[in-house]
Amino acid sequence: MTAGKVDAAAIAARVEAFVRDVVVLYEQDPRLGAHGPSEELVAELRAKAKAASVLTPHILEGGAHLTQVETAMVLKPSGLSPLGPVAVNTMAPDEGNMYLLGKVATDEQKARFLAPLIAGQARSAFFMTEPAADGGAGSDPSMMKTVCRLDGNHWVIDGRKAFITGAQGARVGIVMAKSDAGACLFLVDLPDPAIRIERVLDTIDSSMPGGHSIVAIENLRVPADQMLGAPGEGFALAQVRLSPARLSHCMRWHGAATRAHEIATAYACKREAFGKLLVDHEGVGFMLAENLIDLQQSALMIDWCASVLDAGSLGTAESSMAKVAVSEALMRVADRCVQVMGGTGVSGDTIVEQVFREIRAFRIYDGPTEVHKWSLAKKIKRDHLKGRAT
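and the corresponding structure tokens:
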């Protein structure tokens, strides 16, 4: 079976029904904590997703991946609940890691590291970002301090990493380190005593299992055949993952913002103030109208970027534009939903306040808005000077 022969709309419909009918019922589950859902809850949700034939819906039997346009159709409804991507196995960082391994891993690496991720039996972590206090790599990976050196048929890695999503509880790790030849990517089995979680950070978001950790890597020995690609190819291979991963974030959080808008709309259509429904007050009605505009424009940006990626020509500029436009638009949507609902909007009685927190973090994760704008500004200057030269 190939991606071109599947009915992505039918897959998306099954995912939406599962999230709305099953996953939403877990949104007040006591196994949800500040650092994400517990491993027990993740396993329970994924068992139900598997029974409903919606587990890892973007990857088909045999390993074929849906096109990016088709992936958008599926990932948006998976995000209708903050728990949805966890339940159906479309959540970051696993979704991006599966995409990367599907593109660049050897057959042996896929069998060992990718297969358990696709089956929803394991979670993964991508070890790239480093602590700012160490002067390490954040939005600028060229500042990387984590190093690796060849020792016989093993690579030895030392360094510290920060904001590593899902490190706690992960079974598969992808570690970036700097060698004399340049950046390298390694596949590692987790847990490993050489990879020590110093602490799990308390952050504004709470949807991702394992939270976000600061990690120390000390004398980690990795067999040479667990390197992805060749020495020095780490940055190039990371881009294989990062550009589509930014777009996947946009897809999932579009679903979350859509759900928040639905909840705010229902609230405004039943709550009365000053003799009429809230929705009939121009200030509230206009906010909901603006939500529709932002949601539709975001969907168009996602679909355009996905089509460019499918055509094989997606660059960092396109993914940066999508990341900026969609994250900022969805932040406006989430903020308006909170405002429309007043006190209820800032309470935990609905998932609106969580969506607000999650999307606020999304404006930073995978590159802050300002970094992407700076990158685009450099491209504008470069293209202008190139045009003058010719």
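(Above: one complete record from the training split.) The chain has a mean pLDDT of 94.
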